[in-house]
Specification:
mainly alpha
């Protein structure tokens, strides 16, 4: 995800990074080129003159815009829910480390607990993206913990279990009051709920038929539109048809991109930066010295 200040209005007209223009360029060029051909032939295909007016396109365009709006709203709802779930990860991991630091007589014992939580966040990011969490786990956990996690499919859930085992051990050792265990377990349950919510979003895409229907309708509309414009606006047909095609193609591409918010596309969630922020926040609570941030570091709002 690209997080940066809003550029000047003039630069906004020509910005490419973070826009969907590179993704839709092939179909946009094809639609505009076809509109140029229609304008040159003045709407005549071989020996037949295709008689179309802008009236049916106005009605279809209105319906298509409503459908695209629904598609984008559904995709953004998934995107925003995913962002809220990662906000829960930040808030509850902080609460757990704070509770452990303030309610255990020897705070030095808390580091292992915090490492489990940090490893959980990184493991969840890797699980959602289908990448290998081993480098992060080896960096954060002991060799014995890494061996236990090596062959497990759902490593984030296992790390929450390890963290709960740590709470049980501290209660049995008498360094954690049994009265405080339900409070800690409540935050652990919130983390488990956030894990399940992220898995639900990642494993339940919007029904494919929506994408197929919108894609076919948009393409058909943009290819037929020049025939309805050429008799009224003539040489300006490619300009108007190209602009309308850009609007519809871009809306479709944006919806498809944010539908899966955990990916690596420019407009997906900045999971790398959010994971690093959680790790740095918890390490700072433990009293560890943090490295200086680069000037171009991403800014993540909680």
């Amino acid at each position: 995800m690209i997080v940066r200040p809003r550029p000047h209005w003039l630069r906004m007209l020509f910005v490419l990074r973070g826009s969907v223009l590179p993704d839709i360029a092939p179909q946009l060029v094809a639609a505009t080129g076809f509109a140029v051909l229609v304008a040159m032939c003045h709407g005549q295909l071989l020996q037949w003159k295709i008689q179309l007016t802008f009236v049916p396109f106005s009605l279809i365009g209105l319906t298509l815009a409503i459908f695209l709006g629904f598609r984008n709203s559904t995709s953004y709802a998934r995107y925003w829910e995913a962002r809220m779930l990662w906000g829960v990860l930040l808030n509850d991991t902080r609460s757990l480390v704070r509770q452990a630091l303030t309610h255990i007589d020897d705070p030095s014992h808390t580091r292992d607990f915090a490492m489990y939580l940090i490893a959980f966040v990184h493991a969840l990011r890797h699980q959602l993206r289908g990448s290998d969490p081993s480098p992060d786990l080896r960096r954060l956990l002991s060799d014995s913990d890494c061996v236990r996690l090596q062959n497990l499919r759902y490593k984030p859930a296992a790390l929450l279990l390890h963290a709960s085992h740590w709470v049980r051990e501290k209660r049995q050792e008498g360094v954690l009051s049994p009265v405080l265990v339900p409070v800690i377990e409540s935050s652990m349950t919130h983390l488990c709920d956030a894990l399940g919510g992220c898995e639900r979003i990642a494993n339940t895409p919007i029904p494919f038929t929506y994408s197929v229907l919108i894609h076919r309708t948009v393409f058909t509309y943009c290819l037929l539109l020049p025939f309805g414009l050429v008799d009224s606006i003539g040489a300006m047909t490619p300009v108007v048809a190209g602009f309308i095609a850009y609007t519809f193609f871009a809306l479709e591409a944006v919806a498809a991109e944010i539908e899966e918010p955990f990916g690596m596309a420019p407009n997906d969630l900045a999971l790398d930066a959010m994971s690093s922020m959680i790790e740095e926040s918890l390490r700072e609570m433990l009293g560890e010295q943090l490295p200086e941030k680069p000037d171009a570091a991403e800014i993540i709002l909680t």
